[in-house]
Amino acid sequence: MAIKLKPPAYLMLGMLRLGASSGYAIKKAADVSTRFFWPTSLAQVYPELARLEREGLVTRRDDSHGARARSAYQVTDRGDAALLAWLRSTHEAPLQFRDEGVLRLFLADALPREDQVALVRRLRGRAHAAAVHMHNEIVPLAQALEEGGTRYPAVVARLGADTYQYAEKWLARLEAELDRSG
Amino acid sequence: MAIKLKPPAYLMLGMLRLGASSGYAIKKAADVSTRFFWPTSLAQVYPELARLEREGLVTRRDDSHGARARSAYQVTDRGDAALLAWLRSTHEAPLQFRDEGVLRLFLADALPREDQVALVRRLRGRAHAAAVHMHNEIVPLAQALEEGGTRYPAVVARLGADTYQYAEKWLARLEAELDRSG
DNA sequence: TATAGCATGTAATTAGTTACATGATTAA
DNA sequence: TTAATCATGTAACTAATTACATGCTATA
Q: A27: domain range?
C-alpha cells in the first residue's frame, strides 16, 4: 500500500523521473511545462523534496560544482510505486480553475455595450497570446522530449495550445455577434 | 478614484447586482454559475460582505422572516463604481488553472500502455460529464436570466459547455490514436 | 415528526505566494 | 566587471477550505 501524497509531491517525483535532478531544475522545468495547469514555486519545491527524502521516496546526494552547492535527487522504488499508484488511481479530482477574465465576462452586463465589446476583445487577445506562446515556445520544447520517447508532455502542450485557440475562435465569434447586434 | 479590491469582492458585488441579496443566496448562485471559474464558500462570503459594508460599498438592512434572521445587502453608488472600474480595467490577470487530471496526463509516460489508455479514457469521461452537466443544468438556468436581459451568464455557460466538449473530442481523438498505435 | 433547506457566522487548517537572505559561476 | 543565471533555503503573508456551532422553517 503506497503512501498518499498531494499533487505537488507527484509533480516533484514526476519531474525527477523526467530528468530534472535538482530543486532548481525542477522549478525551471515546471515553468515551461506544468506551469499552465500546475504552477509551483521554489518555496514549495525545497520543503517538498525534504519531506519526500524523510519518507524515503527520494534519495539525495551531493552534486556540488566546486564551491557551488547542489543536491541531486533520485526517485526510490517506493517513490516510483507511489507515483504509479497515483497515476492509476481513479478518484476523480474535481477540475478547478480560477479565472478573473471569465469572472469579468460573467459580470459584463453591468457595462455599456462598447465596454462589453472591448472586454471580449481583450479576452480574445489574451487567448490568442496564450495559444501562440504555447505553440511557439512550449510545444517545441515538449517535442524535443518526444524524440526521446517521452510523449505526454507534448500531448499536453498541444492540448493546451489547441484549447486556447478554440477559446480564441469562440470569442472572435462572440465579438462579431456583438458588433452585428450593436 | 475607486478602491482596489480582490476578485472575491467583485464576485459579491456582481451577485448582488444580479439579484442575490443575502450571503446565503450569493453562495447558492455562485454554486450554479461562477463555481466553474471562481468557486467560493460561505466562510468567504460573510466576512467579505462585512468588509464591503465597512468600506461603504454595500449597505445592509434587516430582512428577517419571523424568527429567522436574514440580512439583505445592496450595492451603493461607490460599490457600483468600483465594480465598473474593475470590469473596465485592462490589467491582465494571468489565467491560472490547476488540474490534477492534466498533471496526471503530463506524467503518463511512467505508465504501461494500457494504463495510459485508461487514464485518457477517464479524462475524456470527465470532460464529457462536465460538458453534459453544463449543457443540461447550467446553461438553462443562465438562459432564464437571459430572457430578463442579462446575457453574459449564458455566454459564459455556453463557453464552458463548448470548451469541455472540445476537450472531450480532443481526448477521444487521442484515445483512438493510442488504440491504433498500441 | 423528521429531514432538507434556509441562514449566519467563527475557528482551525491547508496551500500557496512573495519577499528575504546568501553566495557561486558564466558569459557578455 | 557586471549582469544573468545557477543554487538553496526560510520567514512572513495571503487566500481559501473544511469543520464547527447554532437555530429556524417548510414540506413530505
A: 7-88
